[in-house]
TrEMBL record:
Domain Thioredoxin: 24-174
Molecular function terms from GO: thioredoxin-dependent peroxiredoxin activity
The keyword Disulfide bond appears for this protein: yes
Record-stated family: Belongs to the peroxiredoxin family. BCP/PrxQ subfamily.
Name of the protein: thioredoxin-dependent peroxiredoxin
Region spans: Disordered: 1-33
Subunit: Monomer.
Assigned keywords, A-Z: Antioxidant, Disulfide bond, Oxidoreductase, Peroxidase, Redox-active center
EC number annotated for this UniProt entry: 1.11.1.24
Pfam families named among the record's database cross-references: AhpC-TSA
Reaction catalysed by this enzyme: a hydroperoxide + [thioredoxin]-dithiol = an alcohol + [thioredoxin]-disulfide + H2O
Positions annotated as active site in the UniProt record: 66 (cysteine sulfenic acid (-soh) intermediate)
Length: 178
């Protein structure tokens, strides 16, 4: 924890983050975006106003930790849906890689391709890693009004699990969870 961080606050610093990059903090309006989910379909974040959204940035399709993380979220989709939350996975991989990865892992939620311009959305959320050219392993829970209510950056080699997401969803006003 940094010396300036108050007790009970989450320390969002991470040695692998570029100095100018800071993940979006709770209370920040989530930047809108439109990203492809298939070669001929796209998702626009603002179209999901009125319900919570979970953004799960991850470094790359096909890496062992990413596969485990996305597979775990797939197993918890019904719990996320209990909160009326929409889950999106985001990486800098292209739609064809996502298509094959989704099919191989039998995923039932959209993977969004932050491919061109590479990492533009990850940069907007403060979670792009310049050196390898990938996104951090970062999570954001956005409320029905489009405001970040929780964010977390995990070490790249560590699956952050679902507890933080579920806790953040639980903290949302109850009318959002219906």
């Amino acid at each position: 924890m940094t010396p300036d961080a108050a007790e009970g606050e989450i320390d969002y610093t991470h040695p692998e983050l570029e100095a100018e990059q800071t993940p979006l903090q709770p209370g920040t309006e989530a930047p809108d975006f439109t990203l492809p989910t298939t070669p001929d379909q796209a998702v626009t974040l603002s179209n999901f106003r009125g319900q919570p959204v979970i953004l799960a940035f991850y470094p790359a399709d096909w890496s062992p930790v990413c596969g485990d993380q996305m597979g775990l979220y797939n197993e918890f989709l019904s719990e996320f849906r209990d909160y009326n939350a929409q889950l999106f996975g985001l990486s800098v991989d292209g739609v064809w890689s996502h298509d094959a990865f989704e099919a191989d892992r039998n995923l039932h939620f959209p993977l969004l391709a932050d491919f061109e311009p590479k990492g533009e959305v990850a940069r907007a959320y403060g979670v792009y890693r310049d050196e390898p050219g990938t996104a951090e392993r970062a999570l954001f829970v956005i409320d029905a009004e489009g405001v970040v209510q929780w964010s977390y950056v995990s070490p790249v080699g560590v699956n952050p699990g679902v507890d933080g997401i579920l806790d953040a969803l639980e903290e949302l006003p109850s009318e959002e969870n219906q």
